[in-house]
Batch of 3 targets.
Target 1
Amino acid sequence: MMIGQLRVTVRMFLLIAAFALVNSVVLAQDSLNVRALFNWQDASLPASSTWSNTYNEVWGYAADGREYGVIGSTNGTHIIDVTDPTNSYEAVFIEGAATGSQVIHRHFDNYGHYLYMVCDEGPSTLQIADLSFLPDSAPLVYDSNVLFTRAHNCFIDQATAHLYVVGNSNWAAVYSLEDPTDPTLLVNCRYDLAFWNSIGYLHDIYVRNDTAYCNAETRGLFVVDFTDMENPTMIGSLPVYPHQGYNHSGYLMENQPYYAMADETHGKSIKILDVSDMQNLQVTDTVTSGVNPFSIPHNLIYRDNFLFVSYYYDGMYVFNCTDPAHPTLAGFYDTSTEPHADNDYRGCWGVYPFLPSGHILASDMQTGLWVLDGTDAISGTTGTDAVSEREPVLIRPNPVTDRAEVSSAFGGSGFSVMDMFGKERLAGTITTNGSIPQIESLNPGLYLMRIQDHAYFGSVRFIKH
């Protein structure tokens, strides 16, 4: 596609997407084996000055037979009672120390009935809220910048009661939660550990039994044993790997030695790592949504034999990991109406799959909190293979006039075209040379084309002139 044509396409996408967002009540979202139960957003909240993201991280909490979704915004932390998804409501709002358009990142974890909140912008603080009073209130029991002012992420090792905080001036630090309302510093990695200079700033971290998987931006993955807080040691590293980009986040499978890793870089795939031998970390597969060259995996979480992924632009994805070395696509739900674009980061931010009901929480930077039902994806009734080293769906030309084609690799696959209200307008079989039959019969507008056969599912949005 020529640059001028790309600019026109992006501009038209923005205009149409804005219209679609206003009319979100009737807009049908793209999905496979996942359906939406509830969407919460607050139009009065300001958007950030960076990517116009009003919302960020998502978390969940359950107690006394009730379930809650936690979502960060530019103004603070919103706790939504999602026990009955169709009648969900905002139960509590906790104002952040830093608020407004300067805020892009908040992050959460909980230890028992205490919720820990960090922010990576402004004169912020570590905040701790007591959730035992929900749904009536969630009072702050700690709100201070004594330990640190800003942080990008936090992770609590539940087995050892250690709070790991990363992405600030300390690069990484470990705190004791012996008193959950008064954390105390155990290790300042940047200044206490000489070997940490080879690791540097951490963007994210996953920890189990004080074994920490450290996502270190473009420097790769490092594994550090903190069992002896007096003498932490690096026990593994992966500085180079396939589809390498900005190493953003990762998660360890519960009962299998596999670690999933997402690079927050346009077009980069998720890496599946065999971590049974720390001295020889191996990438066993790479998987992706396959939607667009600008697709970006952001955050990911294993639960049981499934990997849940939040994809900017593309939504929430579920992969079946019955074969942990080679995941397959089980389902997805697109929370976003944003067009794919280079050097831009919008759409689905985070995912939380641990509610007792089995409902999945997802946060979208523009559309807020989603409660999703992934029963069909988990049951595997109609799942398909994941895209593994496959080319994404690209339609040419875009905008479309009287003809259009995709790669000949999709020849013989079935396709369907839906309008922006979710109505099917065209269906058939792609020709052997990749041509899409009867595309000229469509009226002008925005469409979504799905391509599916026994081993592939992909989709792409396009404009018909």
Target 2
Amino acid sequence: MLAHLPILQVVLPLLAAPSCLIMRRPKLVWLFTLIVSSIAFLISVALLQQVMESGPISYELGGWEQPWGIEYRIDELSAFLLLIVSAVSTVVLLAAHTSIQAEIAEDSQMMFYVLYLLSLTGMLGIISTGDVFNVFVFLEISSLSAYALIAMGDGRRALWASYQYLIMGTIGATFILIAIGLMYQMTGTLNMEDLSRRLPDVAHTRTMYAAYVFFVVGVCLKMALFPLHLWLPNAYSYAPSIVTAFFAATSTKVALYLLIRFTFSVFDFSFSFSTLPLQPVFLVLGFLGIFVASTAAIYQKNLKHLFAYSSVAQIGYMIVGYSIATSAGLMATLLHLFNHSLMKSALFLALAAVMYRLSSVQLSCLQGMGRQMPLTMAAIVVGGASLIGVPLTIGFVSKWFLVMAAIENGLWPVAVLVLLGSLLAIVYVWRVVEVAYFMEPMPGKDPVKEAPWSILVPVWLLVAANVYFGVDTRLSVQIAQAAADSLFGVSP
């Protein structure tokens, strides 16, 4: 059984999705989905432990050897991402049954879990597969279910957000498919490892330059890298709160995984950063994302919009680390990828609690909520502190390693700009704190109860993780460093 864990990781949620249709009670479907996600999480833990101890795992579907057959390949990077996606999915699902009761009609709740499991399947498949065409297939499974999940939000704005995401996502997927077609035309193979051996012979052709550009643009659309981020704020804001909490922590991270995977494992690293002038391009786009999106977040009146723009800024930090083009910079990116997943899932799940009690996430509705919903507001404060990078939170750890990577490479202006970006985070987080703690409740408004424990428990599990991994960094740093070193070919 242990030998089949790579395929079980993907097949289990895929088969579970249509199985939800057999069940009639929403609570039973929720429990079934939670069990499936929990098993996927346990599998990811086992895979990570095996990879860290014994090295990469190669699983050949049907016994067909690569490159003729489809291979699933799990190394340090993919095992790390599998852990993040499955862990966030499981914790978010703990709150799903209570949260969606206030946002999704009962007759649509069963379909919600079907789509959720399909989206989870797509993300796990993208991370696990070693075949570039399978990447596209799983990308479409994840994306199509994501469009439908976003459309399940309340009102026409959710439909418009879903449609906007569909258009942008389809363009991105088309670009990726064109890139895959061009790579296959030049090499005759779709296996990533086989591609990495054959691409150097044709790397300096116009076809391969075009393939790489198509791929990078397509992935950056999916990743919502500035200025290709316009779909993200509305998608996060008008989707059901549980969907937002899940996607904010996973979807853009999976797209970043693809960028890293193709840069280091498929195309040669020197091709990406020496032959093509991507390093300065990504560095500029990363900082533009940090400052433009952070500034936009300051002026938002909807909390989901505010933290959605913050996500665009945080993607900028990850791209800055990636563009430093050293093992230390990539390690900082992977560490921030992990930490940001914990930050945003905690924040958006706390907003699910706000939505459950107030039926709104407008900033003005939070007046005086620091006293009426103390646990929910405290969770938002801790998550906001992580975004800023306050010591003893995971955000501080991420920015510390990012600044150190910049300084080690002699990029002092980069280190200074990273610190300045944190000052903008202070402004928009303080706006939330000021309204919740320093303003009186709106006159004539009935007192509000604290959120139910079924939402608060998973929220505070994530908040505790924000603090724990900010104090004890051994596990997250060790895995991120191992993944970065393996991609750069550094021996342990």
Target 3
Amino acid sequence: MNELYLILYGYIPYAVVIIFLVGIIYRMATWVSAKGLVGLYNANVCLYRDGWGSTTIEVLKRIFIFYTLPGRDKDQSLFIGSFLFHWGIWIALIGHLGIIIPGTYLEEWFGLTPSLHHVIALYVGGTAGTVALLGLLILTIRRITGRTVTVKVMNEYRVYIPLRMFSFLDDYFALAILLAIMIFGLYQTLGITPYNPAYVDVISKWMWSLVTLHPNVEPIMSYPILQVHALLAMIFIAYFPWSKMMHPFSFLFMPTIARPAIKVRVPKVR
């Protein structure tokens, strides 16, 4: 049994990281070398906006405030769900960095006492996870309730298409595994940590042993909830580069940044 734990939580994490990094590099390389429109390699038509500065600001605005989603004839549930999910998950992921480093090092290097770390993990991490889960639930309900999507053609004609036509097995798989990861993560944050403050140290010892290349799985052998959460997270991380979830990286390779934008001249009306 110990050998199985060592394989699952001591050796496979390294394989997952390799798959993740190689997958991202491979996908980005295919975007750069793509001939024509391939996958997430989008074609954007911008009017005389060739500057790197203005285009980069535009991309950052889309990433962080999702300003193109709300508005008249737009999908409000998509905007609300995306905003809550992405901001919640970003904060939660940043909080995971504090779990990797053991409490003794956090206090020595950053002056973060165990009690303060516990409060941050409980309230900030718990709030961020709850917000992300709420956003993901909105996106999930939106996808499975038969909602229609409005597609504009030439800015004059509107076509209403059921969202289910854009939904495939990989979409539901991603939603299911993300929901499971968040539920198990929140259960640990809000259901275990408040009554067992040392639980964070248990996670840190295991994760730090992986970082230092001396895997030690003994700290987590008595915590099945953590084991399931970690296993689901590893499946998700390995799957990430090969899925639609690579879309954040696609912003870096839009033609409007990687190459000059397509100029469109509007003829003057006489």
